[in-house]
Design brief:
Blueprint (H helix, E strand, L loop, with lengths): L11 H14 L2 H8 L3 H15 L4 E2 L6 E2 L1 H28 L6 E5 L1 H19 L4 E5 L5 H6 L5 E4 L9 E10 L1 E4 L10 H7 L2 E4 L4 H12 L6 E5 L2 H9 L5 E3 L5 H5 L5 E4 L6 E9 L6 H17 L4 H5 L1 E2 L1 H7 L1
Parallel strand pairs: 3-4, 3-5, 8-9
Antiparallel strand pairs: 1-2, 5-12, 6-12, 6-13, 7-10, 7-11
């Protein structure tokens, strides 16, 4: 038998994979199609194997092609070898993957219930994290929490561009909407006239969303009467649904209310657009690839949830930045 070391200038595992495809399909053309390679590449891999073992593995004179006795023996060994190679990859991946003993995540309260199952599932599946702590904190707390190392990850509307050493993964961008009692579906777009009949139900000024809306109304020189403020979206939506006022909210802030079946009229904001972004933030060079893997899972969950909103609200959400980052 020829010296086999002289034939090791090709990928033996790939050649065995091709050989198994030939054995399964009985034709080189079908094996090539199944593997997504050319027929000539399939033929070359088979030739290399037969040269390596100085024997004929396939009877090419039969249709479909049949394995020789040597080929049948190699088929059994090849299957076992490829299976063991897969186990080696998995074992080495587990050894090199850093251990994360505790994962602490702060989320926007409006997304906490929706994203909790996703975060748990991904952390367990990817890194077998034994302990997870979740915090539904207002975004104005997030900067201090990440700076003081109280948390490892943020799902936040605050990018903290003034802080160095952070990695940011875009999830979505969204435009704020005018949220009205259901009987106002035919609203004519005159915000000042609306404000003369209904007060503003808003997030408290101590919250980032409340501060953002207040600043925007001042920039647009819109004066509205304020009636109620709260720090939870469902409280605001419940007040609006009951006819106690109107509000200005982003689409993702409507998700909990939509799940609870609250009836509301949701319309485009009849003044200059107001937008915000939601992103995943963590300290650079920490948690290995977990944030990179969590970001698309979060995006997918929110993409599905947004489909529950009415068409006007869905159109106000843009996942393009997340999609571009994934590419």
């Amino acid at each position: 038998m020829a010296n086999r070391s002289s034939h090791h200038d090709f990928n033996l595992l790939r050649a065995l994979e091709v050989f198994l495809a030939i054995a399964k399909h009985g034709q080189m053309t079908r094996a090539a199609a199944a593997l997504g390679i050319s027929q000539s590449a399939v033929s070359q891999h088979l030739t290399n194997l037969e040269a390596l073992y100085s024997t004929t593995l396939v009877d090419r004179g039969l249709r479909p092609m049949q394995l020789t006795l040597t080929g049948a023996a190699l088929r059994q060994h090849a299957g076992e070898l490829l299976h063991r190679a897969t186990l080696i990859d998995s074992d080495l991946d587990q050894i090199e993957r850093p251990h994360i003993p505790l994962l602490r995540i702060a989320l926007l309260p409006s997304l906490a219930t929706l994203l909790t199952p996703v975060l748990i599932a991904e952390a367990k599946a990817r890194y077998q994290v034994p302990m997870i702590s979740l915090y539904a904190d207002l975004a104005n707390m997030h900067q201090q929490m990440i700076k003081s190392r109280q948390v490892d990850l943020l799902v936040t509307s605050q990018p903290f561009y003034d802080l160095d050493g952070l990695a940011r993964y875009p999830i979505l961008e969204e435009s704020f909407l005018l949220v009205l009692p259901p009987e106002y579906r035919e609203f004519n777009g005159d915000l000042e006239q609306l404000a003369a009949n209904l007060p503003l139900v808003r997030f408290s000024a101590s919250t980032p969303a409340g501060l953002l809306v207040d600043q925007h109304l001042r920039r647009c020189q819109v004066d509205v009467k304020r009636y109620l403020d709260a720090d939870r979206t469902t409280m605001i939506m419940a007040a609006v649904a009951a006819g106690h006022g109107f509000s200005i909210l982003a689409p993702t802030l409507l998700l909990d209310g939509a799940i609870e079946g609250m009836s509301l009229a949701v319309l485009p904001l009849p003044i200059k657009p107001l937008r915000r972004s939601i992103m995943l933030v963590n300290r650079q060079n920490e948690l290995d690839r977990l944030p990179l893997q969590l970001a698309p899972a979060i995006t997918a969950r929110l993409r599905g949830a947004v489909e529950l909103l009415d068409p006007g609200a869905r159109q106000a959400v843009n996942f393009a930045a997340a999609d571009a980052s994934a590419d």
